[in-house]
């Protein structure tokens, strides 16, 4: 092969490398743009869908002389959502006094006497009371459980601590109510009861646990996970801060007689 041929081969390989690197940069830029734009677009779409849903349901109930769309040449988005929020707040304020509690008690007694409907109403009411009531409780801890088989660990959430007698088992048996959610939709899953020693509690916040489930295992918390037992052992091993020496009170002076 002559020097001229080798120069041509080198020129072609250099051009191919530049072309490949240019296409690689374009692909990187494209996926970076997708990562930036897609969450923002989905958030805007979900917000507009939520607002339009309330507008389509609530706006027809608003009298024409109170509806701003009657006086403006364009439709005002969010009017139904604002009216719905005001109505919900008004019902909550009504329930705080004696008249409201009497009406709600009458409504509950009427629903509880209706077959089929009472089961749906009671279950739904308990869920919303747990989620939104000030006295309600949400998930307490994130944990690991052997699910769906032994030696296969799944992220789960501890709903509450309970005694075995509450679920028909022997009394005095410490257990957890554990919720294993599906991916990427955490609102569906399985609930089961496990002994405390079979559940490995993690020092992960519930928010980080939900992110881990929704992201299909791609988004991990920044800090390494540790069990509360390890944290407690580390605190016990840490040297105690020496207490400051107490100041001696000066002796009282004797008065001269």
- State the secondary-structure class: alpha+beta
Could you tell me the mean pLDDT?
A: 79
- Euclidean distance between termini CA atoms: 125 Å
* Outline: flat
- How is the biggest beta sheet arranged? 5 strands, antiparallel
Number of strands: 5
Helical content class: 40-55%
Strand content: 5-15%
H/E element sequence: HHHHEEEEEHH
Uncertain ranges: 240-247
Number of helices: 6
Taking all Cα atoms into account, the compactness measure Rg is 32 Å
Descriptive overview:
The chain has 6 helices and 5 strands; from the N terminus they run ααααβββββαα. It has 257 residues and is an alpha+beta fold. Among the domains are: 69 residues; 97 residues, no CATH class. The chain has a 5-stranded antiparallel β-sheet, with helices on one face. A hairpin with a 6-residue loop joins strand 1 and strand 2. Helix 1 packs across helix 2. The chain is flat, with a radius of gyration of 32 Å. About 3% of the residues have low confidence.
């Amino acid at each position: 092969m002559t020097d001229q041929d080798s120069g041509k081969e080198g020129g072609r390989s250099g051009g191919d490398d530049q072309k490949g690197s240019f296409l690689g940069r374009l692909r990187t830029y494209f996926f970076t743009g997708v990562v930036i734009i897609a969450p923002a677009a989905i958030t805007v779409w979900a917000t507009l869908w939520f607002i339009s849903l309330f507008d389509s349901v609530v706006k027809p109930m608003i009298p024409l002389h109170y509806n701003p769309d009657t006086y403006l040449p364009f439709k005002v988005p969010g009017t139904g959502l604002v009216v719905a929020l005001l109505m919900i707040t008004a019902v909550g304020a009504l329930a705080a006094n004696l008249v409201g509690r009497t009406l709600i008690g009458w409504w509950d007694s009427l629903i509880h006497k209706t077959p089929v409907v009472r089961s749906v109403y009671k279950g739904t009411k308990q869920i919303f009371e747990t989620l939104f009531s000030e006295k309600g409780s949400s998930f307490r801890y994130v944990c690991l459980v052997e699910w769906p088989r032994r030696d296969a660990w799944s992220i789960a959430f501890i709903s509450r601590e309970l005694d075995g007698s509450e679920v028909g088992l022997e009394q005095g048996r410490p257990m957890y109510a554990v919720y294993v959610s599906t991916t990427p939709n955490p609102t569906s899953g399985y609930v089961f009861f496990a002994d405390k020693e079979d559940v490995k509690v993690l020092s992960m916040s519930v928010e980080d646990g939900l992110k881990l489930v929704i992201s299909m295992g791609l988004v991990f918390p920044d800090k390494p996970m540790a069990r509360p037992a390890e944290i407690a052992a580390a605190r016990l091993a840490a040297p105690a801060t020496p207490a400051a020496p107490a100041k001696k009170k000066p002796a009282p002076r004797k008065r001269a007689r």
